[in-house]
Structure formats: C-alpha cells, structure tokens
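Researcher: Here's a chain I'd like modeled. Treat it as a single chain, no partners, no ligands.
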Amino acid sequence: MKRCLRRAMPTHIIQGVMIVLFSLGSLGIVGGSFFLRKAFSNTSEPEIITDTTRYKEIRNQLWSDPDQLKHFPNQIPTDAKDIRIAYSPGFLQGGSFFQIRLKQPPEKIKKLLSQYRNNAKHKYRGGNTNDHINQPNGVPTTFFYTNDSSGETFPDAYEILVLDATDRGKSGFKWNHGDSYGVAINSSASEIIYWAEQW
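Model: Modeled as a single isolated chain. Structure tokens:
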C-alpha cells in the first residue's frame, strides 16, 4: 500500500504543476496580446500636433531632416496673425508632414512671393499633392492640413511653389518614397504656408 501512495503522489503533483503552468501560459498570451494591441492601436494613427507653442521644438528637434525646413522661419514672426500648425511624425510606412500657416502684412507677403517664385522648381495653382503629381512632369507636394475646414485641397487663390522634391522610390515604382518642401501663398488673403513632407 505504501508503494502505491509513493507512485501516485508524484503524478498528482505533476498534474497540479501542469495545470498551474497552463493557466499562467494562457494568462500570459491573453495579457500579452492585449498590451500589444493597445500599443499598436495608440501609435498606428499618430496624433497631429496643432499647438503653436511647440513650433520651435518641431522645427529644431523633431523633424528628421533640418535641410527641408531651412525656408521655414526660425521662430514665428512677431507680426504674424492667425497662426496654425500641423505636424505628424508618421509611423512605419506612413509619411510625416509639417506645415505652418500664418498671415503677414501684404508688403511682406509680396516680397516672399517674389523670392520663392524665383527659387521654385515647380509651380502649381490650387489643388493638392494628388493633383500635382498627375500633371506632366508633376511632383508630389502636400495637402492643406492647416485648412479651417475639413477639405485638404488648396483653393485656386493659392500658388504652390515647390522648392525641392526628391524621388527615393525604386525603379518602376516612382515616388514610392521621397520628400518635398516649399510654400503655398495666397496674396489676396496675405497668407503664407510653409510645408515639408516625407513618405
């Protein structure tokens, strides 16, 4: 009788240990998948920053290529009004963008328009990046992220001036990756939008 008890005891202990291990493993899988889902759901759609007090931080620290922002003002001009920014850092294959929209005195806007027209490699009137890239010799530009309404297309009053655009796509898949930057100017509204895009 003692022999039977000694043999039965280890089997019960092993079964108990196995039940505990399976329970812990199940909890680990359920808990781990919850945290992974939570992590990816929070970062798959990055929040667009619109807080104008973060302008210098975005321009000087967060944007990955400072050369694309050389045409942006070092700081928000003191005479600027109706200031809006839109910044998205992008995620995985998603692109990033940065825009600042502001009104300035008409004589200053006129001077900026003349300066950027002379330096622009591509010029468009109104539209958005999809319209511009589909024109003959077109390049990607930007959407109107700082618009007051939900529309992301520039009205015809805006002159979109591309200072540079670089195709980093593979052969046969043009513009799959790249970047572009420039300004959009509405002289009648005395407004300028500085923009940069990476994808």
